[in-house]
């Protein structure tokens, strides 16, 4: 509803909205969502966070590494229950990328949010969980969950000892929830520049950075063309997996 309202506004720079990717894009691409706007009706202005997907298990799990999980999953295809936060969002796309690259199939269980998904993992209703760094952060700090990998090219400072999918031999398994600010298409370039400068200044304040840090939120500021490029690269990835899931 918010993105529909954003897309139909006058492009004068006075009406902006928060977006997260790939959620916005899968909403557009999935015909069952019946979106009344297109991807090009939204103009990315600036991002503030890129929150990668992780693969998590309980501390008492018999799997010690991602390889252990993969080997077991190949022996028992479709039997290991794995929690997914949301339908056709970053975590499911992360799972689909991983399943394709690793040649495995898990039994997916969908949840409306991270809290019930984490509860299900801790309660032994699922044995694996796909969710983001920020979703997992407090549970990891308390020692209640253990992570096997992060779906990124570089390690995060929040989990410096956690290997990336790229390190483990899966360089194309990259998934994240990316959050930022956008507007309706047609905002004049000088106005966009002014908005970008204002938001970047606000995002760079110590108070704001401290809040992101305490939430375990990886900062990733992309401004203007950099964010637009990322937006359309994300669109291609989302399109592939939306078509794959609908084909099933």
Structure, described:
- The structure is a single chain.
- This protein is α/β, with parallel strands linked by helices and 248 residues long.
- It folds into two domains: 122 residues, D-Maltodextrin-Binding Protein, domain 2 (3-Layer(aba) Sandwich), CATH 3.40.190.150; 99 residues, Periplasmic binding protein-like II (D-Maltodextrin-Binding Protein, domain 2, 3-Layer(aba) Sandwich), CATH 3.40.190.10.
- It has nine helices and seven strands; from the N terminus they run H-E-H-E-H-E-H-E-H-E-H-E-E-H-H-H.
- Strand 3, helix 4 and strand 4 form a beta-alpha-beta unit.
- The chain is globular.
- The two termini are 28 Å apart.
CATH level 1 name of the largest domain: Alpha Beta
Please give the domain count: 2
CATH superfamily membership of the largest domain, which one? Bordetella uptake gene, domain 1
Strand fraction band? 15-25%
Q: Shape, please? A: globular
Largest sheet: 7 strands, mixed
Q: What is the first-to-last residue Cα distance?
A: 28 Å
> What is the chain-wise order of helices and strands?
HEHEHEHEHEHEEHHH
Could you give a quick summary of the protein structure above?
By secondary structure, the chain is an alpha/beta fold. It contains nine helices and seven strands.
Could you outline the blueprint of secondary structure elements for this entry?
Blueprint: H1 2-7, E1 17-21, H2 23-29, E2 42-57, H3 66-75, E3 81-85, H4 90-102, E4 107-111, H5 114-122, E5 128-132, H6 133-141, E6 146-150, E7 176-184, H7 189-203, H8 206-214, H9 225-247
Parallel strand pairs: 3-4, 3-5
Antiparallel strand pairs: 1-7, 2-5, 2-6, 2-7
């Amino acid at each position: 509803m918010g993105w529909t309202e954003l897309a139909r506004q006058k492009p004068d720079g006075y009406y902006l909205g928060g977006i997260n990717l790939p959620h916005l894009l899968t909403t557009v691409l999935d015909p069952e969502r019946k979106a009344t706007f297109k991807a090009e009706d939204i103009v990315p202005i600036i991002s503030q966070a890129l929150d990668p997907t992780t693969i998590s298990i309980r501390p008492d799990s018999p799997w010690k590494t991602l390889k252990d999980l993969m080997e077991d999953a190949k022996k028992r295809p479709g039997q290991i229950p794995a929690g997914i936060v949301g339908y056709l969002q970053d975590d499911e796309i992360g799972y689909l990328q991983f399943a394709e690259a690793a040649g495995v199939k898990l039994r997916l269980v969908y949840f409306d949010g991270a809290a019930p998904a984490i509860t299900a993992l801790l309660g032994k209703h699922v044995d694996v969980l796909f969710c983001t760094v920020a979703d997992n952060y407090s549970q990891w700090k308390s020692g209640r969950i253990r992570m096997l990998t992060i779906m990124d090219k570089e390690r995060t400072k929040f989990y410096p000892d956690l290997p990336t999918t790229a390190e483990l031999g899966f360089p194309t398994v990259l998934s994240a929830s990316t959050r930022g600010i956008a507007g309706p298409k047609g905002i004049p370039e000088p106005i966009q520049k002014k908005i970008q400068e204002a938001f970047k200044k606000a995002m760079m304040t110590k108070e704001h950075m401290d809040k992101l840090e305490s939430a375990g939120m990886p900062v990733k500021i992309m401004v203007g063309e950099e964010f637009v490029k990322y937006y359309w690269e994300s669109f291609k990835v989302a399109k592939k997996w939306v078509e794959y899931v609908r084909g099933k």
